[in-house]
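Schema walk-through. Below, the input block comes first and the output block second. Nothing else is stored per chain. Lengths vary across the set, and this one has 147 residues.
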Amino acid sequence: MIEIVEMNANHVPQVAELEKMCFHDPWSEASVASELGNPLSLWLVAADGEKVVGYVGSQTVIDMTDMMNIAVHPDFRRRGVAKMLVERLVDALKDRQSRCLMLEVRASNTGAQLLYEILGFVQVGIRKNYYRNPKEDALILRKEWEI
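--- output ---
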């Protein structure tokens, strides 16, 4: 059974491995670990026993949060893991007095866009040539709520 918990130091190596597996420009293990000491950051992991099968990372400034990264292990995709991560993140952000969550998503990533639409995100802009490898625009999405 998959459980969503706050990331701790034991999760960091597996999160860094998922970064390498899922992204062209992955965060280093040291960069991921540094988020543990950042009071603005909240990172959650989806754990199947001891195995990290997904994660989401965010930073909040005042009452606005930016979702920096989200990834799910390829063997666990299409099982609702990303949805669970985002829903749990939003719940935790409400408790921390955040009022919105923003993110960028590749213009070609229609699967993620559909998930975000289902979760109540709306497109609020475009960042031209935001992604580098390969070069691509990002859609800026936002979800707001009352606290």
